[in-house]
Hints:
This protein has helices at 45-53, 75-78, 99-108, 121-133, 151-163, 181-198, 209-214, 233-238, 241-253; strands at residues 2-11, 19-29, 34-38, 60-65, 68-69, 82-85, 169-173, 201-205, 218-223, 226-231, 261-263. It is of the alpha/beta class. It has one domain (2-263): P-loop containing nucleotide triphosphate hydrolases (Rossmann fold, 3-Layer(aba) Sandwich), CATH 3.40.50.300. β7 (169-173), α6 and β8 form a beta-alpha-beta unit. The two termini are 22 Å apart. The mean pLDDT is 91. Bound molecules: adenosine-5'-triphosphate and magnesium ion (MG). Adenosine-5'-triphosphate binds at residues 11-12, 19, 21, 39, 41-47.
Amino acid sequence: MLRLENVTKIFNPNTVNQKSALVEIFLELAEGDFITVIGSNGAGKSTLLNVIAGVYPIDAGSITLDGNDIKGLPEHRRAYSIGRVFQDPMRGTAPSMTVEENLSMAMARGKKRGLKLGIRKDQRQFFADRLALLELGLENRLKDKVGLLSGGQRQAITLLMATLTHPRLLLLDEHTAALDPKTAKKIVELTEKIVGENNLTTLMVTHNMEQALRLGNRLIMMHEGRIILELADDFKQKMTVNGLLQEFEHLRGEAFVSDRVVLAT
Ligand SMILES: Nc1ncnc2c1ncn2[C@@H]1O[C@H](COP(=O)(O)OP(=O)(O)OP(=O)(O)O)[C@@H](O)[C@H]1O
Ligand SMILES: [Mg+2]
């Protein structure tokens, strides 16, 4: 359903700061795939998600979603099909707006008509029902400004907002990294639940190897703008954190890492 072919992204081309953040990336996601993405700092993980979401144009290659070329579509035109949650809990919500206003904005995302002021009673009930699923008591705080909530609460709302309109694709970029362990665990559980119940096709970046192995059905490892390792479901289930670290050390040591190693039966 999502297909990236030879995608290349170069930042600051023809300057001393030139950086190839993505090098000839090929990646194909099937409906319902949940892929975890690992790799060290600067590997290109966020850039990969950003070019899919349309934050930056790509320099070469193609990106198609459900067979449609989305390469030329600006970010806001892709937003209806693509839900996102970022590392920074402050980023996904508007702090000066209330919880229900934020949710209402998420419902309107990508639609032609602008944000209508005023929230109908049935909408409010719908929001309260969805918030109740988070089990954080947020259904009683519909009229509170989001800026008053904790990072974990905001991240839970962002996750709900990102998935409210059943996007074709969900992009999660280290969305639990800034949270305390207990809250992070809760958000991971919510993620599993929301992705599972809606069978959402998902790309999730994480530095937590254990999490990367446990969640989802495929795993990719990035290094210097390339996908250097891919684990299919059966291999992913058998792989250990130590095994993964060893693979990384081995592959990173290769002089030429342009070939991806695929572990699949
Ligand atoms: N907007 C930008 N302008 C210039 N260079 C950028 C930009 N965004 C990313 N880069 C560079 O591209 C490379 C890949 O960055 P990216 O943020 O994708 O890495 P990452 O794998 O997400 O790392 P981290 O684990 O630290 O989040 C880095 O060298 C980074 O400095
Ligand atoms: Mg990143």
